[in-house]
Amino acid sequence: MLLRGGNPEASLHQRDEAQDRGRNALKKVWQDSYDESCVLELHARVDMDGLVREYADAVLERPSKVVKKTKVPQALDRGDIEAQLRTWKERSYDVSVIEANLAAEPSVLTASVLAMREAVKKAEAASEALASLDVTGFESRAAILRERLRDPIRHPDIDAEVELLREATESMRRVESRRSLERSREREFKERTKKVLELVMKQRREMKSEAPLPSSEEVEKALEEPAPPRDAATNLAPAFTFEGFTVGESNRFAHTAAIAVAKQPAKAYNPLLITSGPGLGKTHLLHAIGNYIASHETGAKVLYLTCEAFGTGLTDAREKGTLGAFRDRVRGVDCLLIDDIQFLSGMTEVHEELFHAFNDLHGAGKQIVLASDRPPKAIANLDERLISRFESGLVAGIEPPELATRVAILERRSREAKVTVEPGVLKLIASLVEENVRELGGALNRVVAFSSMMGRPITEDLVREVLAEPPSEAAPPPVAVQERAEPISLQGLSPGRSYLIEEERPAEAFRRFAAFLGGRGGGLVITRTNPKRVRETYDLSAERVLWLTDREGSAEDTIAPALERIVYEIEDFMSKQPRGAVLLDGIEYLVSNNSFDAVLKFVRRLLDAISESHYALIISLGSATVKEQELKVLEREMEVIRVP
């Protein structure tokens, strides 16, 4: 599959003697990617244009008809050209290209004017799109684009650049929202620790044990996981190794890339950038790379720094007059690892120094490894030169671990702690802590510590007792449940909101979907019902109806239950229209073809995209088609509408 800018451009598929190209091949590639025996390889530096020319019949979007050879345009009147030039100048457009052709042949001059007209049209649309963006944190990039808009001939891809900025702003908002949630969860984490401490003290008093009560400090020490020791010369934590990293589907790609870099520094991927939310293992991989290189490359100099430590060290060096020594230390290594580069957004004084350090190291064939909670383009106020350099190698992401990986992590932790915990108990802990590996370890620590202090075996009841949510005075109100009232189809849905409609058949979902669109179009339906029957039954203005099925050869548009493919289809549809609605019917079918954890991640990604758009998402689900616990999780994520 050939991708440009993250979007599939051409696809080929071959199995045995059968070969497909184009759309059908893309569908089969997505389906194969779910096969356990499938191996995915990423090749970042290829001749895309050459491959597209070589496999022209594999291109996904083909012209609907043969374009006839363009005729030479009729020469424009000189007076009209001069009037047009004045208008463009008044609107601050750079018309130097046309002015350079004023003395040329009429056909050449006419062609340049017509090209300028098309370029101005595109620039006006891009300017309108740029004006609609909240560019807070990206002011410098927006200013550059506004300047380029004045010269649309020399910047024919200005609309694509504006789109990239839009994606960057939306990505930053999503990450900031996630970080806010993480901060809230960290506060809750500390509250739970405090709760366990209070529980221990209370129960020990009630037991009237003759053994002395542990002090608060002793309990906290038992509950909190100590920070691993660091090597003074490299800042590396020797405890973080590849052997100690639990690999699952969510982190396999980043883990493989990290090993490749460690075994072949500056030859595999340089730089390597690992991205993920907090507590998912990117820091562990940075240390593992550094430790491997330091132990396997004789005399290799390795240095690990957080972004904050880099900035603090630079400031101190400037104040003490030791800038040369600081630069020698940073630029004189064989492998430089910098963590949390997202904080560069508030450290503009560091950009120039890091830019030159990067160039020196990269030019000398030294390995650079970075970690961030977001892609470089989504880091506010980051120097364009740093963005291009950070993205010049490989960007590998880590997703929240699926249930099997969380259980494997807990099994490893319990072995290391020499504590025997039943598999069912580990699975319960893993189901209660879903998003953060660090919290997962902390949860196990609390359970083990409580069990030890109270002399009680580790059971599911004890886990629920220790890990129960702490009471909160400012707890959010429960999700509002709309009870059915006539006329139901007139009850409105709001843009940017997601709704779970619980019903035996998707009739109510289709009625609300049609009412929301109001005949305006802008609707996408993905359904388990044959589209022909949908159109016969409901008066829909949906522009696209996809049949969610594995069936091939149908006259209707179909889509397989491959989650990535469905996400691509939805996001692609939303990118082409400013507002609308998406109806998804068939969650239980997706669960049966994937897993609930995978479908939950898929749904959460859609919710994030919808929340920052003018779209509404409607999911129709029969409450009896999924497990009760799974239904409760989905209900927590969306506004619920129950239909008797």
What does this structure look like?
Mean pLDDT is 82; it is low at 62-68 and 470-491. Helix 17 crosses helix 18. This protein folds into five domains: 2-58, no CATH class; 78-156, no CATH class; 187-224 and 402-467, no CATH class; 252-397, P-loop containing nucleotide triphosphate hydrolases (Rossmann fold, 3-Layer(aba) Sandwich); 481-642, P-loop containing nucleotide triphosphate hydrolases (Rossmann fold, 3-Layer(aba) Sandwich), CATH 3.40.50. The protein has an eight-stranded parallel β-sheet, with helices on both faces. The protein has 644 residues and is of the alpha/beta class. The longest helix has 50 residues, at 158-207. The chain has 24 helices and 17 strands. The two termini are 46 Å apart.
Topology:
Elements: E1 2-4, E2 7-10, E3 12-15, E4 18-21, H1 23-32, H2 48-54, H3 78-90, H4 96-99, H5 106-131, H6 139-149, H7 158-207, H8 216-223, H9 252-263, E5 272-275, H10 282-296, E6 302-306, H11 307-320, H12 323-331, E7 335-339, H13 348-363, E8 367-372, H14 384-390, E9 394-397, H15 403-416, H16 423-432, H17 437-454, H18 460-467, E10 481-482, E11 498-502, H19 507-517, E12 523-527, H20 531-537, E13 544-548, E14 558-559, H21 563-576, E15 579-585, H22 587-593, H23 596-611, E16 614-621, H24 628-637, E17 639-642
Parallel strand pairs: 5-8, 5-9, 6-7, 7-8, 10-17, 11-16, 11-17, 12-13, 12-15, 13-14, 15-16
Antiparallel strand pairs: 1-2, 3-4
